[in-house]
What does this fold into?
Amino acid sequence: MEDIIIKNKLKLARIEKNLTQEQLAELVGVTRQTIGLIEKGKYNPTLKLCLKIAKVLDKGLDDLFWIGGEK
Amino acid sequence: MFKKLIVKDERTEKIYHEIGSKMFAITIWLILSAMIYRRFILGQSPKDFRDLQFIIAITAILYIGANLYYGGILSVRLKSILIRIYITLVIVSLIIGILSNNITNLTEGLTSIITVTVSYLFIIIIYWIISYFGMKKIKKDLS
It folds into this structure.
């Protein structure tokens, strides 16, 4: 079974909210590196973290994350 | 001051667990290599490294047991899994016994077969009990 790649519009949504990676990391309780890796698509966040990020950025889960190849 | 030195999140926790798993596997392989080296290169008797055999045996038993308990193996597959584990353990032990010249005649062979089959049967029964409690735990979590 292939690894599922989760794609995201996290960077765009973060910039819309005028947040730095560090600020967003602080708000959702992770490290800046984790946010950076999520934005680059090199780390698949858990559902819990995805929901936290979506809440902070005032976005729906589907608006921010999707499985690679579907959009 | 010290709180900020170690910043943990889900990603770093995942990395710690992956490293832990890999280091565990490496450690086991190193101990097995040390045993093979001592037995076949240095020519030591297995009695000289009983301590390493004990570590490997306890580690393997606990590892399989923990997987059975927390994995919640379905009862339908459990029987076939345990039978396979049992047969594999018996055959591997007998082969190792023959190769390390611990079994040199029929009497020793029969004694080893009885010892090995009874010992492993005991372990398999323990595993069955652990799996039973593991399944109970999962059923409780699901209710």
Observations:
- Chain B has a mean pLDDT of 82.
- The radius of gyration of chain B is 20 Å.
- Chain B touches chain A at residues 7, 9-12 (CB under 8 Å).
- The helical segments of chain B are 10-41, 50-71, 75-99, 106-142.
